[in-house]
Amino acid sequence: MLKIKELTKKFDSLVAVNRVSLDCKKGETLTVLGPSGCGKTTLLRLVAGFEKPDQGEILLNGEVVSQPNKIIAPNKRDLGMIFQDLALWPHMTVEQNIEFSLRSKRMNKTERKKEVKEILEKINLEGFEKRYPNKLSGGEQQRVALARSLVSKPKLLLMDEPLSSLDSILKGELIQLLTSLKDQLELTMVYVTHDQEEAKSVADRIAVMNCGRIEQVGTLEEIRSDPTNKLVKDFLNIHTKPRSFRLEG
Ligand SMILES: Nc1ncnc2c1ncn2[C@@H]1O[C@H](COP(=O)(O)OP(=O)(O)O)[C@@H](O)[C@H]1O
Ligand SMILES: [Mg+2]
Predict the structure, then answer these.
(1) Is the beta carbon of 14 within 6 A of some atom in ligand 1?
(2) What 8-state DSSP symbol labels residue 203?
(3) What sign does the CA torsion over 228, 230, 234, 240 have?
(4) Does residue 245 have a pLDDT over 80?
(5) Which ligand neighbours the alpha carbon of 83 most closely?
(6) What's the rounded Cα separation, in Å, for the pair 180 and 171?
(7) Residue 39 carries which DSSP code?
(8) CB count in 10 Å sphere of residue 201
(9) CA distances, 7 to each of 22, 29, 69, 91, 201 (Å)
(10) Beta bridge partners of 156
(11) Can you give the pTM of this predicted structure?
């Protein structure tokens, strides 16, 4: 589905993304976990097509979409995106916000309404169609943003710390919702976060990132049983048991 090969992005002398190679299979949730400033957002922006790489390439379903001298526009990539800043349109109702994502699809008004209604049901927001974003709680706004990114049935969903502004109860609820939607809609996701609990609860595989590089990729079990270095251990809170030893003689 998604293949990232030896991707590098520099901002002047700062190497924000440093020879990153990763892939994400259909139906998989890959989380990228790393401290603030390690290059997570830059990596997602590269995948989305908002940034051009200095080296390396990105493929979506076998098609090259990013190379230093070639870039396919974000709206031609069939992606859903939720970034830290939700950016719901304040002057549009919930329904209009979601419907906006369907504007490029060849659908008539009735079809669009039907799609919007369906996604609102899935996301437990029936009856919210006519509300404006400023009349919604933080968690509800987050769900509208999710609905908006899912309604066009993108082949890949990119999420940049989507829950960072929510309290832990809401976070838990949204993670549950996301997990059930993932199965229902067979979503493929790249989910970026600095929060290890979030990463662990949504991920099929985790990529631990630091200073622009991927330190290790694997399932939580794989990483737990064989963390490559101290940073990975610390970041995933892995406590290796002290070796038991026998006194001889
Ligand atoms: N447009 C930009 N211009 C210059 N530096 C940038 C730009 N975007 C990001 N950076 C720098 O790249 C590094 C990685 O940033 P970012 O990808 O936002 O990290 P994260 O999302 O992991 O917090 C940071 O040092 C940041 O200051
Ligand atoms: Mg970021």
Answers:
(1) yes
(2) -
(3) positive
(4) no
(5) 2
(6) 14
(7) S
(8) 16
(9) 9, 20, 13, 38, 27
(10) 79
(11) 0.89
The tens digit of pLDDT for each residue in 182-219 reads: 888 889 999 999 999 899 899 999 999 999 999 999 99
State if residue 16 touches ligand 1 by the CB under 6 angstroms criterion. yes
- Any ligand 1 atom below 6 A from CB of 38: yes
The residue among 126, 125, 135, 202 whose CA lies nearest residue 163 is 202
Ligand 1 contacts CB of residue 2 (under 6 A): no
**HEC letters along 44-102:** HHHHHCCCCCCEEEEEECCEEEEECCEECCHHHCCEEEECCCCCCCCCCCHHHHHHHCC
Q: Ligand 1 pocket check: which of 17, 20, 42, 192 to mutate, most ligand atoms within 8 Å of Cβ?
A: 42
Closest ligand, as measured to the CA of 16: 1
Q: Which amino acid is at 9?
A: K
Report the pLDDT value the prediction gives residue 185, as an integer from 0 to 100. 86
Helices (H), the chain: 40-48, 94-100, 109-122, 138-150, 168-185, 196-202, 220-225, 230-235
pLDDT at position 106 over 70: yes
Residue of the nearest CA to atom 7 in ligand 1? Answer: 11
Q: Report CA-CA distances (Å) from 78 to 1, 68, 248.
A: 12, 21, 65
- Tell me if 87 CB under 6 Å of ligand 1: no
Cα of 46 to ligand 1 centre, how many Å?
12
Return the residue whose CA atom lies nearest to atom 9 of ligand 1. 42
In this structure, which ligand is nearest to the CA of 14?
A: 1
